[in-house]
Amino acid sequence: MDTIYAAEPYKIKVVEPIAVTTREQRAQFIAEAGYNTFLLRSDQCYIDLLTDSGTTAMSDNQWAGMMLGDEAYAGSRNFIHLQEVVRRYYGFKHIVPTHQGRGAENLLSRLCIKPGEYVPGNMYFTTTRAHQELNGAKFVDIIVDEAHDSQIDVPFKGNVDLAKLQRLIDEVGADRIPYVCVAVTVNLAGGQPVSMDNLRAVKRLCEAHGIQVMFDATRCVENAYFIKEREPEYAGRTIAEILKEMMSYADGCTMSGKKDCLVNIGGFLCMNDDHLYQRASELVVLFEGMPSYGGLAGRDMEAMARGIEESVDYHYIHHRIGQCRYLADQLVAAGIPIVRPVGGHAVFLDARAFLDHLPQDEFPAQTLAAQLYLESGVRSMERGIVSAGRNQETGDHHRPKLELVRLTIPRRVYTYAHLDIVARACEALYRRRRDIKGMRMVYEPKLLRFFTSRFEPLG
């Protein structure tokens, strides 16, 4: 390939051995796991691309900060540092730490949602929608139509469709919409970004109707990189400057620090409203801990504060996006169908096109993830009909248009050579795709079934 990919902007100081297994061993492991990659043990996986959540390699600076943990029950100096960093880079007035992102989602949903309300968002995310529904809201998808087509290559497939949002406001009334949830980037669309112009327009529309805008800011630095790359007026701006402006178009955010904050645990809820902060400070004591630690040790808050500072370094994020593109370019060259354009945290295989002989009710993405592990020891994640769950009213499957397998690249963990192996495994599987049979579900939990469901092969 002619493209030049940036070298790793770090050098390796500590190494961790990884498992090398035989096909016979993997056949046993995946069967025992019910053909669900979530149920595999990490020491059964060769290259683990299940998630980028909490799988980051922290820097020497972050590890040094861990030794400065102030484990006071209240008023930890590490919380003060984290608060200062969040205000500097994100601009929000208040921060409530949580044990991870879904802790923040739980607080926001309980604080803001009343039964019978509607929460519009630019495509659902699994835990986010679960918290919204558990608190009585109905999620409404207002993402642009292009996001549901894996092959349309447009720069900002994560954008909110303003006409869809306005139509919902007209139909149900602004008073029944507690907030608009905007993900930056959109995970289940393939890691697709939202443009600054769109964020600005969403905020303007919501302000006109008295509706709050809340970001899912989990991968906000990746979104800032795409804005710098794809919106000409931001080409000369720093990642930090772009990030700060992005956040100015929200009233608050939930954050899973296990992604773009470069840590292995932690998250937070942010807001500008004093009254909402007071209520959040009361509720966090019930579910997480004191408002100045919220389920985190002081050392974890220090690592997160330092991770936020490191995350806006251009060389770091340029290399991160480049690793995704490196893997994607190899797959495209081999004719393997993926989501286009490539997002910021993963390459998404289009399982519907990859296994086009399988109906969706035979779980092609779940099947493909299991087969990729069997082929190579590479662990990936289903993002299709299993992740979508069931309709609460009818009990039938949600059937998303996107039936995907996510090859998620952990931050600062793997090299280009590891990605070469992943590409070769996908190519081998693609050559024999017609021999692959689907699966049936043999165990299904009521909530977030993709974590613990079990399957067996058909035939």
Verbal overview:
The protein is α/β, with parallel strands linked by helices. The protein folds into 2 domains: 23-52 and 314-457, Aspartate Aminotransferase, domain 1 (Alpha-Beta Complex), CATH 3.90.1150; 60-311, Aspartate Aminotransferase, domain 2 (3-Layer(aba) Sandwich), CATH 3.40.640.10. Helices cover 40% and strands 13% of the residues. It contains 16 helices and 14 strands. A 5-stranded mixed β-sheet has the order 2-8-7-6-5, sandwiched between helices. The protein has a 3-stranded antiparallel β-sheet with strand order 9-12-11. A two-stranded parallel ribbon has the order 1-10. Helix 5 links the parallel strand 3 (118-121) and strand 4. Helix 12 packs parallel to helix 16. It is globular. It starts with 22 loop residues before the first helix and ends with a strand. The mean pLDDT is 97. GO terms for molecular function: tyrosine phenol-lyase activity. This is Tyrosine phenol-lyase. It is an enzyme of class 4 (lyase). Homotetramer. Its EC number is 4.1.99.2.
Largest sheet data: 5 strands, mixed
Summing up helix and strand content along with how strands pair, one would put the structural category as: alpha/beta
**CATH homologous superfamily classification of the largest domain:** Type I PLP-dependent aspartate aminotransferase-like (Major domain)
Please give the count of helices: 16
> For the record, what CATH class of the largest domain applies?
Alpha Beta
Quaternary state of this entry equals single chain
Placed side by side, the strands forming the largest sheet appear as 2-8-7-6-5
State mean pLDDT (0 to 100 scale): 97
At CATH level 2, the architecture of the largest domain is 3-Layer(aba) Sandwich
CATH fold category name of the largest domain: Aspartate Aminotransferase, domain 2
Distance between the termini: 40 Å
